[in-house]
Amino acid sequence: MSCAEGPAEYVKCKAATWLRFIDCELHRMTIRESALKCGISAPQAFFLRHKLQEAIGEILDGIALSGRVEMDGKFFRINLKGTKPENMPRPSKHRGGGSVDPNHRVMTIWAIDENDNMVAKIVGLGPESREKIDKMLPRLKGCTTLVTDDKSCYEGFARDNGFRHVQIKSGTYSNLQGDTMNEVNSLMSDFDTWACRCRGISTRHLQGYLDRFVFQKLLCYAKEAMDRPGAELRAVLSSSAAITCGKILKKAMPIDLYEAYGKWGYGIFADDKTHS
Fold it and tell me: Which fold has domain 66-201?
């Protein structure tokens, strides 16, 4: 495959540089560190990162979970990093500040099966609900047992889709039968550690970072460990994903900002009269 196809399309660098950059990303280097090692500018490294994540996202679209599946939700604050002042839906906040409104939290659903296949997906704003959990159904084609906490939305989801449902009471480590959610809880905790060097992830690009983390975890769990680096490079470069720098900058939000901030009537929603 040439460097002018798939995820490497529109990349103004040599194939060797592109491959070296992928290796940098595997080793969790920062944008500046990767740029220095690859001999490119920080802005170019930024665009290469998001091209890579676009390709990885396409690869992960085909993952389905089977057998025993642990599932849980994880919140993230809405992060508008990189948004121009004229495009803001709310006043800018100091670093570390955040609203307590549950609708100002991005909900992600995480799941891992008995074969170490895993998924992390943005499903909307606010707490777990049946509508949000239903978005995970296409990934549970082979699921037989669903292990979750005791929220009622999971109970109805499991019943309606014919899954045996194992519940772990919130605030406890296991149920009376010894079942736990160790795997999915560990997965979410590992992401926090993995992402700590990012200094805040924009909600606009959050799914890409979730995908890259999951992809790297899958590589670590691969049986043929000696072939992991080569397998990853072949998988990424064989992806048909192609994205221009302009599309990266204009990437659509994975959540509805109006749902979170429309009633405030600020910035991009200043002329809206719905909530006046």
Answer: Nucleotidyltransferase; domain 5 (3.30.420)
